[in-house]
């Protein structure tokens, strides 16, 4: 299996299945001499871990990370940082009924078609459990970029969305609601909507917006490795992601050039930021902002019709501990993938000019 690594200069490789002994990762290219803030890493993991509230899966994991290498006396050595997170609360019996039955819109059939066999328990390696390792990598990457602030929040759940731009939101309040939406009235409607669908045995999708401040002009490699292209890959590699747009995105196509162009006030300062802080694949020093679309969770209790491995029709009512929506737990995953992408480009930028 290839494709378990992300990044160029700073590279995260992850391994492990949801119901195996542990998941883990190796972060290569992390510079030596950095004092590691272990508390910040655990705090990020706590925001992603399962079992947080009735808006998330009931699986209870402490997601305590154990560092195995690359750190000595609290500082990075410049050598690969290896780590594991034990799996402690698997309920593999929940998946017995799914061994030979394909869940609609999960990864069951496509994995079987590709590999001929799979660890069906908890979705195996296709489970979003793997994303805990990305959060460790992201929290370490963030420690290389003191000036950069990455803030994600839930902007929409199903048909309910925040109607004001991010510039009018207090992003320090994201964690004030369980859904991680910084607009209190909208957050409450979002939670009601999710809980109603959960009661009906259904699930909800939505949109996460991410805002990044403090990136200087000059990060991003302008041909294949454009900053927005790598951010797009980072986001689209997260489980259940269906779309990515940055800056004016799809809505910008309805404007004229004269309306969309960011008119220039002075060198490095624009009057608007429809570009989303990226021009020609390179950061221009303004806020970077993008949106990520997540589909509703595939594993729902509501009756669905599917087939088993032998091709027989089966009625399926999925049991087990599933998230009614990915959104609140996906917020720290989006942040982590953005942090990994940015730190990689920060290190790459250091070789651009002597
Ligand atoms: C934070 C998070 C939690 C998730 N929890 C579940 C879950 O409990 N049940 C489920 O069926 N899918 C869950 N997913 C989505 C699946 O992992 C994903 O749909 C599956 O791997 C198939 O991949 P795809 O939807 O990207 O095609 C979750 C995704 C994320 C990001
Ligand atoms: C365990 C996590 O989330 C899991 C993601 C997931 C899926 O299909 O992606 C399915 C569920 O797995 P299980 O049935 O084993 O509880 C979630 O709980 C986690 O994020 O750490």
UniProtKB/TrEMBL annotation:
Entry's Gene Ontology molecular function annotations: chorismate synthase activity; FMN binding
EC numbers for this chain: 4.2.3.5
Keywords for the protein's UniProt record, in alphabetical order: Amino-acid biosynthesis, Aromatic amino acid biosynthesis, FAD, Flavoprotein, FMN, Lyase, NADP
Classification via InterPro entries: Chorismate_synth, Chorismate_synth_AroC_sf, Chorismate_synthase_CS
Cofactors required: FMNH2
GO CC annotations on file: cytosol
Residue sites binding FMN per the record: 125-127, 239-240, 280, 295-299, 321
Entry keyword annotation includes Hydrolase: no
Enzyme class: lyase
Catalytic activity: 5-O-(1-carboxyvinyl)-3-phosphoshikimate = chorismate + phosphate
PROSITE patterns referenced in this protein's UniProt entry, alphabetically: CHORISMATE_SYNTHASE_1, CHORISMATE_SYNTHASE_2, CHORISMATE_SYNTHASE_3
GO terms, biological process: amino acid biosynthetic process; aromatic amino acid family biosynthetic process; chorismate biosynthetic process
Binding site for NADP(+): 48
Cofactor note as given: Reduced FMN (FMNH(2)).
Subunit structure: Homotetramer.
PANTHER family attached to this UniProt entry: CHORISMATE SYNTHASE
Protein role: This reaction introduces a second double bond into the aromatic ring system.
HAMAP family: Chorismate_synth (MF_00300)
UniProt similarity note: Belongs to the chorismate synthase family.
Official protein name in the record: Chorismate synthase
The species this protein was found in: Phaeocystidibacter luteus
